[in-house]
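note to self: the first set is below, dont mix up w the second
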Amino acid sequence: MTMNSWRTRIGVGLAVGVAAVAVPLTSTTAFAAGPPGAGWVPVGAEAYSSKAACEASELPNARANGYNEVWCDDSKRIMPIYYR
């Protein structure tokens, strides 16, 4: 069994340390953040029977206006609607 040189050990140690710091700094979450912020634009509010019904109904309007996502705030009876 041979011993690696100190130069090799230090180089490997630094590479592992840099990778350990770089991975958390560059990783992102897999879910979309809801409003406010993160690029969401308030577009109005309306009463819907459910969050899913609101988002399904509003998606064609969002796409027609250049947006790709809809988020409805179902914590209120008249749901605020956001596009992104």
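second set (the one i keep forgetting abt)
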Amino acid sequence: MSHGATGQPASQLSSPPPRPSQPAGPAKDSALRGWLAVAGLALGVFSFVTTETLPIGLLPSIADGTSVSVGAAGFLVTGFAMVAAATAAPLTTLTGRMDRKWLLATLMTLYIAGNLLATVAATYPLLLAARIIVALAHGVFWSIAVSIAVRLVPERHAVRATSVVLGGISLASVAGTPLGTAIGQSTSWHVAFGCVGLLGVPVLAAALLFMPALPARGSGNLRTLLHVLRHRTLLAAIGVTALVMSGHFLAFTYVTPYLEEVTGVRSSLISVLLLAFGVAGLVGNFAAGAVVARALRGSLIGSSGLLAVVLAVMWAGGASAPLAVTMLVCWGMLYAALPVALQTWVLQAVPEESEAASSWYVAAFNGAIGVGSLIGGLITNASGQRPTMLAAAVFAAGATALAVACGRGRAQQRD
């Protein structure tokens, strides 16, 4: 893994006074440019998550504006996730030989173009086409974002860079989606898509201005996708991701009706609670950055195991508002910590083909959005809101058990 200079000063005994400071300037400048590029990637994550979830709060107006049902409008979200899940791995591999700087610039251009197309879409087919364009870029972006970030900073800061980039997820929950929804409700959904699309401009600028040339490390061969699956650790990471994220989205997709019907929270307070969830996520994300670097397996098992406990408590005691709100905040912290641990695990599993490995992780993550939401909907229709929490807890417990079993298997191999 290639990284920038660390800027160690020259010996003062063998050099005149001015010379020790000479290497420091370029090294500091290189480090600053690297972190500015990482910040651009974090804004990219914020942008993609915001645009992925933007239609959720605007479904009625989108349905009215394109003359379709609310269910059809909802496909703009679920279909987006399905396209991203299906195309992340093959497209990431097919672009495996492209310099990552220029691949990122291409993806952000597609992101901007897709969202701007949505601003002028007057029909549902055109709006769906605009969403597909962004979804195609979405899968590849997620596959390469973290692997690019860890190449931009010294190796000792790799986990910190990962947490900074993935902090865009929680920030989108706190600010991106609520603000996008507010803009769409006060003006129109066309304007909301336009504003979200413009978020891609500074990300594109950061890639062009601050990111050095990053030669590709992938083979650009589709056989690589199958090759990386020979690594049992990667298979375990994909399995844990699929289980724990299915559990999360199974419950979180229906958390609003759960809070209203089971806990008895007034509708006017839901947005406040979801904001608290997002703020807790920001805390959990950056706390995970410090812990994962020291104890990756322990942080992963702890986060998924505690999430199972939190969801089980919400199932058993969700009628108590103080208890449910406390568990919701804990849920936000634990959920946000998981992508940092999971992505780090995936990168370490197959370092020589990190992007191909990440593309499987992205496929599992996005697939879990659709699977979890579908199972949650079936449970809700059959048994109401409360059982979704128990089902989600079972999924999280299964993920924890798989992570524990993987750790034991590796220990036995060493013995």
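remember for set 2: Residues 222-410 form a domain with the Growth Hormone; Chain: A; fold (CATH 1.20.1250.20).
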